[in-house]
Amino acid sequence: MTRVAGSLAIVLAAGLVLGGITHLAMVLAMPMLAGNTAFHRHAAALSPGETRLLVAQQDGNDVPFADPAVAMAVCAFDITEGPLRVEAPMPEGFGSLSVHGRDGTVLYSVTDRTAVNGVVTLVVMTRQQHDEALAAGRSDEASQELRFVSPRLQGLVVVRALAPYPSSLPEARERAAAMECMSAND
Amino acid sequence: MPAILCILATFAIAALVGVTTVDWATSGRPPLGALSIGPWVTWPALGGRDVDPYARAITVRSGALPLGTGEGIEFLASRDDAGQPLHVSCNYTVSGSMPAARAWTLTVYDPSGGTQGERAGLTSAEVLRRPDGAVDITLSRRALPGNWLPLPPSGRFILALRLYDSPQSADPAAIEPATMPRIVRGDCS
User: Fold this and answer.
1) What's domain B33-188's superfamily in CATH?
2) Looking at domain A38-183, which of 3.90.550, 3.30.1220, 2.60.40, 2.160.20 is its CATH number?
3) What is the pLDDT of residue B21?
4) Closest Cα in chain A to B12
5) What share of chain A in percent tops pLDDT 90?
6) Which tops the pLDDT comparison, A55 or B155?
7) The organism sits in which domain of life (chain B) (predicted)?
């Protein structure tokens, strides 16, 4: 009797310890495990260089807890082959740009204060691509653009355009959707 | 007990414990790193690179696109100033001056993060102000004059206050609590 109780206790203790390890491993692996991530949802529907407007209103299924006063557009990137160049025209009121890694981390974010002539130009590149760009040394372009060395190769670029009034929402959507994502090699 | 049974039972317990605790810990709100100012809660690390694994797991699971630290701050409230859960059967007044920001929005969500109808939020540009610059926003299921936000038909709800281009987004802990709006419950039906 005591032997059965003893082995049961060992089974329970071992199960809990192994369960704890499973828990930690699953939390860390969640970016790979989850099938409903923002990257999965949007990257699958996008061809390279395509920008898609996210509709947060009404159905509310695109992005949970999205601000209905803000128009959002998204484009997916993979900078393995070459840097990504983003040109996002900013709206009258408030606009911003953010780079999200495939794993859901916000890697970089800026507001329209960084815009030159109303357009934020962001180049997402790897460390090596950045060094090559520095070596090539076209400084006249460099002053007009933001260069971001991304620690992730794949992810999403999101532009936000605030509509101060409900009537300005169509214009904000137009601005957000006007973001252009292209290969910087061309 | 035979050894094989012990091993199988161990793995069954491990799987059960692992999966249920992960599901519990990665649905809902991040368990770590919350900053509360009155009823308002924010997760400052969510908008940057040093996000903890739990918050990141919650973000990817929900499919959310968090606001970056460089863009602004997002506060959520699911309780009023007295600590009572926000419920649509009551009227609420959200009042006060707002923390410094170029623009802010106040939005009503159902607990799953969806919005109802055309009028789910107010922005700083369209809101009516008192002579001293403060705002009073009424939340009610019935239409009311002034700054009014309709509530969903049933259940609890969540309020989101977003401060866009706020000088405090780098350090939300420095926000003076008195500048955050108060959520006061009115009459209930």
Assistant:
1) Domain of unknown function DUF1214, C-terminal domain (2.60.120.600)
2) 2.60.40
3) 92
4) A15
5) 40
6) B155
7) Bacteria
